[in-house]
Amino acid sequence: MPQPSVLITGCSSGIGRALADAFKAGGYAVWATARKASDLAELQQAGFHAVALDVNDGEALQQLAERLGEEIGGLDVLINNAGYGAMGPLLDGGVDAMRQQFETNVFSIVGVTRAFFPLLRRSRGLVVNIGSVSSVLVTPFAGAYCASKAAVHALSDALRMELAPFAIEVMEVQPGAIASSFGASASQQAEALIREDSPWWPLREGIRARARASQDNPTPASDFAAHLFAAVQRDKRPRLLRLGNGSRALPLLAALLPRALLQRVLSKRFGLAKAL
After folding, report:
1. Is 145 an annotated catalytic residue?
2. For the chain, N or C: smaller number of CB within 10 Å?
């Protein structure tokens, strides 16, 4: 029986690296992508097929798809994991920040899946899109990120229906708080936007609190990866999988609380309860 294959984007650290480890331990040939040379060297040393890839580079995607087509013929699992969290007031970041957020978190899913569709079709494969509970519970100072993950949810539903005739499954995963470099990256994004000339300057501690919130009592990335791998191995795979601290409680909170009350709670939590 041929060795199953998986391509995982964004494997430099956190969820991506943990998934690469889990699938390798499970017997898969793992194609792990990253952008930095140092990260690629570590992945190569760990026994993965390390590939330099910018998920927004259409030409690079096509070249990699052709390479995998020649080397392994098909692709059993594609995990669209690459992404980041843009933090800060929507109007401070403006259209440019939102466009960058959607380029990586949303548009790349279409680009990557489109490039590897022939290989997935050949193997009757599985597409796994890493979303977020932020698609369900929208918070202030993370508007672009929440919107991008809501788009991932919609895209996953559409792709699931459109790929079904080709026997390709689609699973959406909505992580809660997972131990990773996401929080540090989100904090860097927030600090880049926090300026004294911003109308939201008096609320800067609320912005910082939102950037840190993704790392509140986080679930180890290895635990997250182990549960996701187990779900992929099931005969009947879930369409939506919620894993990690808060991944079930927060959507339930969003569903049960009246919208006005929920927004008052979140506004108070992140320092928006007082008029400026």
Report:
1. yes
2. N
